[in-house]
Amino acid sequence: MKTSQEIVEHSARHMLKQGRPCLDDNGDCVNVNENGEQCGIACHIPKENFRLFGGLLDNKGQGGTFWYSLRKFGLIEDSYELLAQIRTIHDSHNVSEWKAEFELLCEELNLDPSFLKDL
């Protein structure tokens, strides 16, 4: 199981490196798009372990859903609120605001924000 620190660091690094939200052809935020970009939550699932299926991540056709896949890769439902906060950063803020939003999230959760200095 991943800690809150690990989840936030992984998501922030991914989103800030990607440098843009994961959008579909209609401009809507999605978990993964046809270009292989991932949102700040879907990035916790290795690309080789998912495929596009109706806008959701599906666990290689084994009947898994997006949330099942997140559980499988160390993000359990206990992290739902944290994942929802990360999704809000991705979906509701400009890219230029992401770093500051992750700093606020770290402060709120008493996490170490020092990893953000290099991003």
Tell me what you see in this structure.
- The chain is mainly α.
- The chain has one domain (4-118).
- 41% of the residues lie in helices and 5% in strands.
- The protein is built from 4 helices and 2 strands, in the order αββααα.
- It has helices at residues 4-18, 66-72, 80-92, 95-108; strands spanning 51-53, 56-58.
- The protein has a two-stranded antiparallel ribbon with strand order 1-2.
- Helix 1 (4-18) packs antiparallel against helix 4 (95-108).
Summarize the SSE layout with pairings.
Layout: H1 4-18, E1 51-53, E2 56-58, H2 66-72, H3 80-92, H4 95-108
Antiparallel strand pairs: 1-2
Helix pairs in contact: 1-3, 1-4, 3-4
Radius of gyration: 14 Å
Q: What's the order of the H and E elements?
A: HEEHHH
Could you name the ranges where pLDDT drops below 50 across 5 or more consecutive residues?
A: 58-63
Mean pLDDT across all residues, rounded?
84
Separation of the first and last Cα atoms: 25 Å
Coarse shape: globular
Structural class: mainly alpha
What characterizes the major β-sheet? 2 strands, antiparallel
What portion of residues belong to β-strands? Answer: 5-15%
How many helices? 4
Total domain modules: 1
Strand order, largest beta sheet: 1-2
The overall strand count is 2
Helix content: 40-55%
What distinguishing features does this structure have?
119 residues, two-stranded antiparallel sheet, 5% strand, 41% helix, mainly alpha
Quick summary:
By secondary structure, this protein is mainly alpha-helical. It is 41% helix and 5% strand.
